[in-house]
Write a structure and sequence with these properties.
This protein has 116 residues and is of the alpha+beta class. Helix content is 17%, strand content 22%. It has a 5-stranded mixed beta sheet. The radius of gyration is 13 Å and the shape is globular. The structure holds FE2/S2 (inorganic) cluster (FES). The site of FE2/S2 (inorganic) cluster has 14 residues, from loops. The site of FE2/S2 (inorganic) cluster (FES) has 14 residues, from loops.
Length: 116
């Protein structure tokens, strides 16, 4: 039995929409890497919660239905992200499950690599 495939759409600031498929349990960072998406600087720290470049902005209803709330470590990093909003998360901390199939996330127009 193969792993279920879900869909995620990334929306860039310029309005470009990029719809890709992903596997159950992939983080949004995995999704970006596995699909070779060319998002400049995205995921610079490789998901170790030290960069904030994987910042994504969710719709309120999606933010609310995520199974977990950000950990303290994630919030510390989010504080450093540019264009932070009330519905911001770090992509490396969001795992795609059946419930999140069809998720749409916006990318900020600029990123802050907190390590530099
Ligand atoms: Fe660096 Fe998510 S990839 S914090």
């Amino acid at each position: 039995k193969s792993t279920p495939q879900y869909e995620v759409t990334f929306v860039k600031k310029n309005g470009e929409r990029i719809k890709v498929t992903c596997n159950e349990g992939d983080s949004l960072l995995d999704v970006v890497l596995n699909n070779n998406l060319d998002f400049d600087g995205y995921g610079a720290c490789g998901g170790t919660l030290t960069c904030s470049t994987c910042h994504v902005i969710l719709k309120k209803e999606d933010f609310d239905r995520l199974p977990d709330t950000p950990t303290e470590e994630e919030n510390d990093m989010l504080d450093l992200a540019y264009e932070y909003t009330d519905t911001s998360r770090l992509g490396c901390q969001i795992r795609i499950t059946k419930d999140l199939n069809g998720l749409e996330v916006c990318l900020p127009s600029s990123i802050n690599d907190a390590r530099s």
